[in-house]
């Protein structure tokens, strides 16, 4: 396996305000853009050439990663001018691939954090002679996902839409967002229009009699599509629950990046990340949270399972619990934001403007 495609063109709508100024794969997770973790794991698996299928804020990627040489990779960038869907994005970069028709190409979705054994997926693909192989994972409640049942040999038998009744839940296996395609299959995807691999390409291949193989790997898997999931994924990387060669420091309860200032009596726990040049005030408590570069957390503040954007300011004694604060926003002292509340970029909340009563 020498090359891969990374699908990094999504707008990250569910992650706003984190993605107002930053494409989803470039939002920092455990101290570096999430994409850095994916690229590092691909390289560790032997991948040498990666084509990034970009679209939203496409101009951000290349200035950061360049040609990939510092990562031991050769990176190329292809930008969609109009949204093409997952299948269309894969087909759109085909001209940059070096593989022959029967060679395998690894494909990743740009918002999945996983402990998948990449080499095992490739080996399964080659051993079974599949046209496409899919990473499948098991979830306790599959109602929010499309189901992918397989036979006793692991061969995919169907692609089922999100189940609506208990009788429709015939498996707990779902598409986990990593694939191996034979190059010839990529070349067969229609050009010039949007195509969904999940809704069109995979079912169409199955109908045509192609061999689609599933590999169930239920180690670590998390869709980082929501702010809460993104914060959790970052913490899991720091804690060592999710693997990555790109972590810029030791695994543990906290990760404090260069230039950050943390008061001696501040307490950082639960995989918290403090970004470069951020400041954490005296007596503050930050648990399982991400504080991005240049942000300020005031004295005595309490921050739990939250994300504080770059340059944002959190006032003294303010409580954040499951909140998201956009870049450059300001939350004054003595506020209380909980349960998924989001503050947009550059918004200012005055002192004591948001409070919860004691019986809530």
From TrEMBL:
Which Pfam family is one of those matched by this entry?
GMPPB_C
What residues does the Mannose-1-phosphate guanyltransferase C-terminal domain cover?
254-333
Which species is this record about? Streptomyces buecherae
Q: What is this protein called?
A: NDP-sugar synthase
Q: What does the sequence similarity comment in the record state about its family?
A: Belongs to the transferase hexapeptide repeat family.
InterPro entries documented for this protein: GMPPB_C (IPR056729), Mannose-1P_guanyltransferase (IPR050486), NTP_transferase_dom (IPR005835), Nucleotide-diphossugar_trans (IPR029044)
Top-rank lineage group of the source organism: Bacteria
Question: Lineage, please?
Answer: Bacteria, Bacillati, Actinomycetota, Actinomycetes, Kitasatosporales
Q: Which residues form the Nucleotidyl transferase domain?
A: 4-236
């Amino acid at each position: 396996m020498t090359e891969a495609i990374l699908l990094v063109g999504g707008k990250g709508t569910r992650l706003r305000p984190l993605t107002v100024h930053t494409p989803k794969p470039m939002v920092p997770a455990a101290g570096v853009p999430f994409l850095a973790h994916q690229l590092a794991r691909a390289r560790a698996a032997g991948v040498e050439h990666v084509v990034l299928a970009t679209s939203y804020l496409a101009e951000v990627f290349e200035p950061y990663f360049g040609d990939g040489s510092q990562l031991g990779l050769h990176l190329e960038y292809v930008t969609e001018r109009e949204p093409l869907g997952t299948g269309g994005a894969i087909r759109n970069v085909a001209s940059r691939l070096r593989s022959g028709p029967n060679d395998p190409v690894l494909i990743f979705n740009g918002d999945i954090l996983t402990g998948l054994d990449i080499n095992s997926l490739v080996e399964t693909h080659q051993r079974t002679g599949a046209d496409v192989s899919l990473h499948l994972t098991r979830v306790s409640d599959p109602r929010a996902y499309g189901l992918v049942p397989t036979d006793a040999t692991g061969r995919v038998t169907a692609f089922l839409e999100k189940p609506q009744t208990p009788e429709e839940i015939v498996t707990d296996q779902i598409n986990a967002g990593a694939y191996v395609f034979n190059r010839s299959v990529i070349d067969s995807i229609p050009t010039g229009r949007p195509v969904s691999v999940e809704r069109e390409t995979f079912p169409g291949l199955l109908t045509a009699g192609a061999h689609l193989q599933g590999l169930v790997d239920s180690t670590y898997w998390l869709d980082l599509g929501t702010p809460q999931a993104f914060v959790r994924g970052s913490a899991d990387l720091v804690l060592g629950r999710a693997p990555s060669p790109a972590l810029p420091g030791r695994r543990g309860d906290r990760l404090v990046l260069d230039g950050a200032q943390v008061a001696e009596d501040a307490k950082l726990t639960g995989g918290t990340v403090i970004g470069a040049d951020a400041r954490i005030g005296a007596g503050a408590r930050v648990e399982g949270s991400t504080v991005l570069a240049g942000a300020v957390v005031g004295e005595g503040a309490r921050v739990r399972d939250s994300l504080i954007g770059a340059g944002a300011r959190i006032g003294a004694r303010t409580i954040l619990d499951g909140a998201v604060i956009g870049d450059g926003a300001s939350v004054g002292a003595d506020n209380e934001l909980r349960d998924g509340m989001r503050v947009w970029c550059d918004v200012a909340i005055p002192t004591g403007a948001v409070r919860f009563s004691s019986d809530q």
